[in-house]
Amino acid sequence: MSLHVLSRRRVCAALAAAAVAFGPAALAADMAKNSAATLNSDGQKALNSLYAKVPAAKAIGGKAAAVLVFPKVTKAGFGIGGQYGEGVLLKGGKPVAHYSTAGLSTGLQAGAQTYGYAMFFMNDAAIGALNRAEGFEVGVGPSVVVMDEGMAKSTTTTTLDKDVYAFIFGQKGLMAGLGIQGNKITKINPK
Prior knowledge:
Blueprint: H1 3-22, H2 24-31, H3 36-53, H4 55-63, E1 66-91, E2 94-121, H5 124-130, E3 136-137, E4 144-147, H6 149-154, E5 164-174, E6 184-188
Parallel strand pairs: 4-5
Antiparallel strand pairs: 1-2, 2-5, 2-6, 3-6
Helix pairs in contact: 1-2, 3-4
């Protein structure tokens, strides 16, 4: 059994356990596979919304070789947590591939939330790392900088020197500990 299948099963099990505690219908719907057309549309809408709210994201997007957008990631947990979402890789504004993001966490946590994130790949080497055999793990390989509001205001396109920049957006729900470090990103083939 591959690492991705095992990891995805663990995440789904954690989400299912959280669904029992925090609302079965909402979390079960989020675990359903999206169609390629839905991912493409939702990804483009989420990216446009991010660009409208965060000018630095739009400036970085203009310099990026590709942008990977996860419009909705569901995170839930009670002691053991999991998160899962599906997204689209855009090159030149056009969808070229689809990916899932998944992660597990343990510790003092309870609740559920949704959020989205966009990763701006600044060079071909970073994009190449995304497609390695066992998937891309955030925090291993190319340097990833998670941009917060303060950092975004002080960043200019002339100071960009990292491989990947990430913006988290649209957080809804009650749960502490939002982050993408350690998330596994794997290529998928939606319908």
